[in-house]
Amino acid sequence: MGKTFKEVGKTSTTSLDQSKFKKVPIEVAPDFFIHVDADRDGKVDDTTAGIDAWHWGKGKKGAVVLVNNNGTMTGIRAVGLGSAVDVKIDHDDKTVNGAADVADIAPLDIRRVGAAPPAGWKVTLSVSADDQQRIRIFDSRGASGNEIIGPGTQASYEFPDLSFTKKELGIEAICYAGKDPANKDFDGLVKLTLTVEKAGGSTATRSAQLRVAPWIMFNHFDEPEKVFVLKTVLSATNPGHNASFVAALSAAASAAGVALEQVDGAPWSSDRWMQDIMEFGFSELPGQKALRNVLETPRGRELENFPKTLLTNDLGYLRPAPVPASSSSLNSGGNLESTPPFTAPSGKKYPFGRIYYCPHRQLNPRDRLAPGYQEFLQRQIVQEPIEIDAGWLNVGHVDEIITFVPASGKLGFKLLLASPRQGRKILKSAPSAGKMLSGREYRPGYSAEMSVKDFLANGVDWGTFKQSAKEISDYNDQCQTHIDSAEKIFKKELGLKSGDIAYVPSIYLPAEPAAGATEADALTAGMVNMLVLGKQCIAPKPFGPVDGGKDLFEEDYRATLAACGLSVTFIDDWNTYHLLKGEVHCGSNTLRKPDASKKWWEFEH
């Protein structure tokens, strides 16, 4: 009768032996195999079947390696405007950095079957020259592991002693998909090759393919943990000093059950735009707690290095591409947002939502979000980016006109869009004697307060800045056209219906008084630019038309959010942010928690 035996093991039985309840040893020729966690359960697999290709989806195969970008911040040094920050990132050296680092190292075994091979055998583990710059393989997954393959050593490693039955190694990634450290295109896949050269000249090769865990950006549906805001270091009499804003934000965040971290503005020259310097996200290795990390945007201003100060063993740091020599406002976190999770009209599920941003200004394509960052975001795959035109705005950020909030119903959320159409509708229905922009200045030295009647009939006259009522009306129609275009894109990509969208009253003016100016600034504070902390929203006070002591823009927005099951707190950011071309969301940033029930490798690509 024919003999049968398992791939791994030293003994088996013939059918005759089984019938006699006897085990007869069968000699298995020595050999060596790569073993990885291809089934993504957090443990190295015993089988080697199917590990040479990587597949998306639940129940599919493909091992994962994590960018090990947590570590420690070692110092801050003043360097003129802003500060330099010294850090030690775990993937920057050739060792496993203690017991805490082990969880960030993916397991990798080399296993032998059969007896120890005779003299003359060679077993070599290798990667390509390109992949050598992208990963590190350690001689142990323990706290004292040292690099045997990687940028600090070599692309291949010959095992000096083949008497082992199992060699437990570890592997980490140095970069995400996008551009690698040598500025080469990297799709996120790494191939490991084990070459077994046997005495007598025969050679066998085995391979395993791993994917670098993508960086995944948080969205408003992820649980908030902490809000960051910068405290300006200015004279208390300076209208831009934000002490009152910080106090109001602290109270509102506390009411939502979220901590507020107040960052000293001194090392950062009071660069208050906390949203624009970073975005929080995470990456995950199967079987381990997700590693949250902070992406530094290529904005190139005083707060530039602040994200590095957040580096800890529990929070990583990344700058996936160089800061361009000539930076753009589009290189800001306010121009980088994510939708909630949804299912597309095609049936494709996006469990982490989709990132959206403005790639460039239509009238000046060279004014753009850094190409290296765009490529990085596209290469992460699971949050396939959506491009939205926000370049018609002076600042050009998508968070000025778009946000998403939780809502009841099958979809589970609503898209909120800034709407000049809704703003003018409310203005036209307001009492003509009602005031708007009460107690505000829009240009220094010129009171912006006026009656609704005057605004609708005469427009504005602030010294060197004048706009007739017709000019304002026509201009807001143009702005509405741009917003309508964004709405069409979201309807197409997310499958939204009209009932899934709510419109937030807004009014715009040209940013500059020069003839032919087209870029827009918000006249009334942009309420869409708000914080969403669970069921509590924190929005800028708009200073819209007032009737009976109530701001009609506020009341309209409050009703919109109440219909979604949300409450809202309005805070005054007029002097401290609005006049500087931003609002509440621009001046804050929220660290959130990943949804542990979702696994990115189950995404169907």
Automatic annotation (TrEMBL):
User: What are the EC numbers?
Assistant: 3.5.3.6
User: Low complexity composition bias: which ranges?
Assistant: 326-336
Q: Name one GO molecular function term.
A: calcium ion binding
Q: Please indicate if the UniProt record lists Membrane as a keyword.
A: no
Alphabetical list of InterPro entries matching this protein: PAD, PAD_C, PAD_central_sf, Prot_Arg_deaminase_cen_dom
Q: Spell out the Pfam families in the cross-references.
A: PAD, PAD_M
Q: Does the keyword Hydrolase apply?
A: yes
Q: Name one GO cellular component term.
A: cytoplasm
Q: Where is this region: Disordered?
A: 326-345
The alphabetized UniProt keywords are: Hydrolase
Protein's name in the database = Arginine deiminase
